[in-house]
Amino acid sequence: xxxxxxKPAPPSAAPAAVRRRTRVLALPEARxxxxxxxxxxxGLPPALLGAPAWVWGTLxxxxxxxxxxxxxxxxxxxxxxxxxxxDLLMVVAALGAxxxxxxxxxxxxxxxxxxxxxxxxxxxxxxxxxxxxxLDLAPTTATRLLPDGTEESxxxxxxxxxxxxxxxxxERVGADGRVLAGASEVDQATITGxxxxxxxxxxxxxxxxxxxxxxxxxxxxxxxASDSVIARIVRMVEEASETKAPTQLxxxxxxxxxxxxxxxxxxxxxxxxxAFGADPTSSLLxxxxxxxxxxxxxxxxxxxxxxxxxxxxxxRHGVLVKSAVVMExxxxxxAVALDKTGxxxxxxxxxxxxxxxxxxxxxxxxxxxxxxxxxxxxxxxxxxxxxxxxxxxxxxxxxxxxxxxxxxxxxxxxxxxxxxxxxxxxYGPGGDGRGPDEDRVLALAAAxxxxxxxxxxxxxxxxxxxxxxxxxxxxxxxSTPGVGVTALVDGxxxxxxxxxxxxxxxxxxxxxxxxxxxxxxxxxxHTAVLVKVNGVPAGVLGIADRLRPDASVTVAALTxxxxxxxxxxTGDNPRAAARLAAEVGITDVRAGLLPQDKVAxxxxxxxxxxxxxxxxxxxxxxxxxxxxxxGIAMGRAGSDLALETADAVIVRDELATVPAVVALSRRARAxxxxxxxxAGVFITxxxxxxxxxxxxxxxxxxxxxxxxxxVGLNGLRLLREAAWRRAAVAxxx
Length: 733
Fold this sequence. Notes:
The chain is α+β, with helices and mostly antiparallel strands. The protein contains 26 helices and 22 strands. The chain has a seven-stranded mixed sheet, sandwiched between helices. Helix 2 runs antiparallel to helix 3, helix 24 (657-692) packs antiparallel against helix 25 and helix 24 (657-692) packs across helix 26. The two termini are 59 Å apart.
């Protein structure tokens, strides 16, 4: 099917995905935790003010029930399976505290534990919401073309391989398939991460959930809905999220063993002295003292304050780390994989080069040679007596003007002196560098592109505004998918689009020069856009996705921290990827990757024993973020799924904060080791004192709480601003 000229689809043409988000209070864990917190806060003032025990005791008892029944039930179910869960241990510890009169402390323990469980449930629900939201990218219905040429609307889940569907401008693609007829530009950033829409013609592959541009397509379904690329992304995220890291498995194993030890030891401490004739009251007091001093409070605080302090400090500097476990894992990474578009780059195409086709490169007598040449020399560019662009006869379309002087041929002259005179306006009165020629080319291109919604068009318009141009109104605007736009600007016919399509194999000197410049820009990793005025090539624009200002510094810092240069993972073309990688110092470039390919690279590196940090921003990065040892998403440009799947988020898109937070994590892990040593010494000493001698309960509480405060204060050192500065300096080397 031949390309047809169409008006741009209105923004409303693209159906918005319905975002389904679970309410916090819809989760039972959150409701019970809230109830426990409210009851605790109601009972706290009477308890502190010395009110009758029945007042605050009733409220605290209700706190125990509302916040503790669910973990107690889960713990009992674990016992049924011959496993002792830490949930049950916490409830027993709270009841033990109440048994020796520490009712308030036990209630506080219940509230903290219930709140932690609720937060974990919310995080799990949010991840599930984002995965379901990804499926919403794919439309629920599609227009199926029947053999007799009629159309019917069907559910996308009912499409089978071989069906032909019609995708109109602005619609989302309903199934993976191949284009049978038509031409359009499809935004497939959700799948490949490419920053620009991709031209799709007969034989090209399209993906479910991607957004069609301004053309119509007939697509033959190639995969069932359950096997589409977007469905496979969902499955991979779910599978990776369900796997547990070795560190987490180790922690769970230690928790189970510690729980067994605590449960077994406390009754023994009570019963053994009793068997040797000890007083029951003193034996019970010894057992309760043992439960207090052997409790893991100091150990927990030994680990959490450094990590939480580092987490809070990172948050103040624009890095949202989702948990203390993630903060610890960040310090373990020894390899980094970076996405390109939206991560190393800003994710927005920008005009980086404007090349007017009148620039002079050599010779006094013109770029293309000869006294009367069009572009160069004294008579060519700046308007000699016979030059096209300048002078009395060149600009105004005189006898010897428009077409390369008196030796320039008769082709354009036959189209009329008036039209040639207008085309001459493009080139202006000469000059090199960013002269009037370049400004005029950019201004005309921006005026023609202004009505378009294409990302490249927006880049051209923004570049013109940045140079202070006032854009003339465009008339008779038309857009050809895969080719470009055409408009009438100040009486000139301006065409802006793909050089290969607009040049169409013409061999005149202007077209040859335009093709050469376009090839140079594309070889350098740019997208080339040709500007023609009244049928004559006037200039070429180079458009590229700009590197983030801190990209090179970040890559160098991550290389120092891990000992190896990062890997670049991108769905973009190899040429553009290699150009960008060279700018930032990356040598390992993996280009043209689909989401499953990125996961394969991550698993390949982890199979070699590496702990991989993946940094990305798009839906297509989510499986790799989930599969990696640790994943970080860019906050501003990141998709919902990437933000939910990632372990940390760079809120302000400041890439340089990544090496700083890694260095801060390593400092936090060093403090954890210090604190564990201190906590271990205190707990061991107090337990031995209680078992061998007679440890007074107040002294046991003082020693236990003192060690807890000590390790807590040590960890809080990472809250200081100086801690972040030292981490940034350490990362920078």
